[in-house]
Amino acid sequence: MVKSETTQLNTVFHALGDATRRQMLLELADGERTVGELAKPFEISLAAASKHIKVLEKAGLIRREVRWRTHVCHLEPAPLAGAHEWLGFYERFWTDRLDALERLLHKEDASQSPYDKEGDDP
User: Fold this and answer.
1) What number is the average pLDDT over the span 98-120?
2) Which end of the chain has fewer CB within 10 Å, C or N?
3) Residues 53 and 35: beta-carbon distance below 8 Å
4) Directed axis angle between helix 3-16 and helix 78-111, to 10°?
5) With b meaning 16 or more CB within 10 Å and e meaning fewer, what string describes 24-57?
6) Where is the HTH arsR-type domain positioned along the sequence (predicted)?
């Protein structure tokens, strides 16, 4: 992986590491929101919301647009593709492991006689 891609991925995961920012992204998935609208569910100040938004902007996850005196935020999902790809490796890893476990358990069940199972009477 190229260093700039690694840096971008680190920035995205840092931004996603905070529950408030993840919820803000969820809100933005439904459409644009003002900074005030993003702050409201958390009962945080506009300054605190703005700090969270700056982290999301730095990660490239949102875009802020100024309309007169109102700051409107939009979701930019493209950086999530890199995170999804990175996590996909681990999804395949666990899926393969769980599939192997399932095969092993089926093989074990098939090798036991019906009366060997706990709780069954002959």
Assistant:
1) 74
2) C
3) yes
4) 80
5) bbebbeeeebebeebbeeeeeeeeebbebbebbb
6) 1-95
Query: Would you state the CATH architecture of domain 3-78?
Result: Orthogonal Bundle (1.10)
Residue with tokens 């803000």: 24
* Torsion region of 101: left, alpha or beta (phi above 0 gives left; psi -120 to 50 gives alpha): alpha
Residue at 18: amino acid letter = D
Query: What residue spans define the domains of the chain?
Result: 3-78
Torsion, Cα of 14, 17, 21, 26 (10° steps) = 110
